[in-house]
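Researcher: We plan to redesign the surface later, but first we want a full-length starting point. Tokens attached.
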């Protein structure tokens, strides 16, 4: 198979990467995740989206970001 001369992940380098991940036991799962939005807040956001309010305005109005 012909690879681009500047290709970073050729077959050999993908193999090396995969072996290092297996050997070190690395995981792609995030270390932490944000808490889930409360159902009441979610309902308000969905109703505002149905009214075609843009996401940035919803976030500003509801204090979400």
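Model: Full-length starting sequence:
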């Amino acid at each position: 198979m012909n690879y681009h001369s500047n290709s970073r992940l050729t077959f050999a380098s993908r193999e090396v990467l995969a072996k290092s991940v297996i050997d070190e036991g690395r995981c792609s799962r995030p270390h932490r995740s944000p808490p889930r939005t409360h159902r009441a807040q979610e309902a308000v956001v969905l109703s505002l989206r149905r009214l075609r309010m843009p996401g940035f305005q919803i976030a500003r109005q509801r204090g979400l970001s």
